[in-house]
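hiii, so i know i said id send this last week but things got crazy w the move. better late than never?? heres the sequnce for the chain we talked about at the cafe, plus the structure i predicted for it. fair warning i was half asleep when i ran it
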Amino acid sequence: MNKSPVIQWLMEGDVAIQYQVSRDLLGADKKAADALQKRIESEGWGAQFLQNQLANGHWGQAFYQPKWASTHYTLLDLKTIGLRPPNAQAQRGCKLALAMPSGENGGLRCSHTSKVTDVCVNGMILNYGSYFLPGHQRLKEVVDYLLKVQMTDGGWNCRYLHKDTTHSSLHSTLSVLEGLLEFRKPPEGYRTPEIIQAEQKAVEFLLRHHLYQSHRTGEIIDQRMLRLSFPGRWRYDILRALDHLRNAAVPYEPRMKSALDVLKSKRKKDGAWRLQEKHKGNVHFDMEKTGSPSRWNTLRALRVLNWFQPGYAM
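okay and structure toks below
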């Protein structure tokens, strides 16, 4: 097939980009896509992440320090760029993550000294842990915790233990949704009906907010939710949310329209989307420059729009 200039530009990027473009936009056969994915561990961004692993198996100082160069966020990045699950280095890091102590209320703690269990962190652990170490016993502990602390409005909030917290957070909810989806992929069968029901309630929570608006006033909750970043870390934005809904095979729903319209409006004349924002913190390296055409955002935007609006021009 003839590739558009935008697709050609994407395929000139890092092998992690090439892999996901081939898989999600070009419909490459499994053998061809697998060959690209295998190269991620030895080339480009994937190799750079892996080269920064310390002799003790961690990245950064420890499990959660510093942001964003810690073991936790590096594993999340490796999962996001598509490193193959059997990678021994990622699995070693995951085993360290899943060895973190249990919290008083369930789940895994961020550190050995804190008694606090963080909902967002547990959602992210479930995400990369289920990807790199499917079937690990402690993943069930995380699932039990997340199902237990789902709020009555359908979402999750890291501040759920505070008496003044009565409403879920889009940030927390999306991190948990990503983790639950990755966990329940076959052959995992643990509490699957309950997980699916929890996901359905949480998706409804997102849609009730049209993905970025107050359900009471219709006002934009936070302008940063409309700014396209990558990697997303723990922060919510509309592209990350739409990409998750696509990944979960959620069909188009009219309450998505305004977010999709915002996304389309951000496409530039050259056919690409820009990297609008980076979340401040320590990083191993920069994959892209803020303000520049972003292959990550362009790839994700195109696959989102092709899922929810088939025939969208690439």
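btw The chain is about 45% helix and 0% strand. thought thatd interest u
miss u guys!!
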